[in-house]
Amino acid sequence: MSWSGVTARQIARAVRRGDADAAAVVDQHLQPIEENPHLAGALTHMRTIDALAEAATVDDLPDLSSLPLAGVPVVVCEQIGITGLAPRLGSHSSVLPIHEVDHEAVQRLRGAGAIIIGTGRSSELALWPTTEDGRHLLRNPWRSDRGVGGPSGGTALAVAGAAVPIGVGLDGPGTAGGVRTSAAACGLFGFSPEHEPATADMEATRWLGGMVGILATTVDDVKLGYAALSRRHARPSAELGRLRVAASNAQVLPLPTTVDHEATQALLNTVRLLTDAGHDTARANPKFGPRLAGASSGAWTAAAYLRAERAQSDRLQRRTRRLVALGERTFLRGYFGGVLGDGARVRQHLEDWFADHDYDILMTPGMPSPPPAAQAWSREGLRANLRHTAAAAAFTAPFALSGLPALVVPVGTRGDGLPATVQLVAPPGGTDRLFDLAAQLWAQLRPRRYSTAIKWK
After folding, report:
1. What pTM, to 2 d.p., does this model score?
2. How many CA atoms lie within 13 A of 88 on its CB side?
């Protein structure tokens, strides 16, 4: 049996039952990557020998019943540390020592039985909503003239290209919308867990890094990955009562873009489907308060400055050096405390808006228009990147800042052949409701999990 394109849930069940060997499953996922230059370029490091050895170790365990991800191949973003690998941080300027311990997320994935087969290419310092480094140009599997989003574009391409069923990346205020931006570009589920709101005494890198997010082709696999990372059991989808769902395509950041007809139509079609399913839907724009733009740009530039301390600044990309200079002013002039305060106010405004109107879910487009073209944006300056690529994170970045649970959901295909997606956002504590609504949409729409360009043996 071929295991390529099989869901993580199905793989784990087969390995636990003894119907499949983890080593055989992993080997079948490694081979297509080695044979396909587009998939190979998505990864910065292949752990072929180590992954096969770790899979054999899983096979030798006497009892696999407690391993929810038994034998499941996973790619993690290169921003996440793995023992024995030097942190590249999406940059040729990184000169950091080899990791001596795994990132906590990697430890938890291994503890759940997952096999880390490689690291996904990311944008420099996880700052940009496009993924290429001047040497490797990643192309969207749905349309090759478009890119894969960012910063976790390589990880997203590995999932969208059926190299692995689950990918793991970062999603937070300083990550250009995190995994959800790449999910929207590649037609995947992309989940950002709820993370704690900003406080005045919070350590800067902790807030800016956000949380570890999940990429997958089914909502069940997202839930399985999240359960492993949060050390809890994946809850089965529950029957939904009548929800109050607000829908909005309003742009809340001052970016040079418009929401195109296809993105608006995908949102409207999903609203109609939810209405027909018995939910109470309304057009309503979320309230972020007056500080969103300043907090968002402040977090972005501050993240650039802090992460650049771990790199050789003269070897950074031109656009990154300019962003670092802006972030340096934020810190040296003592403005970052204001950024934290504004981030906390943005979240409070959103929480109040959900509570005042009794909304259960907010729904927006996943991306306002097609993802940026597949070209060498890393060789362009900051102004060109702001003009042509920043809009990709127009809907994902604001909710990375707020820390509310958010999930990008594929809902079909656009007329131009690219995936159509929406983003679901819940108030604090609404993660289960988010998953349940996504499962309902998936069951009714059944969008393609993979592009027709993906060839199966």
Report:
1. 0.96
2. 18
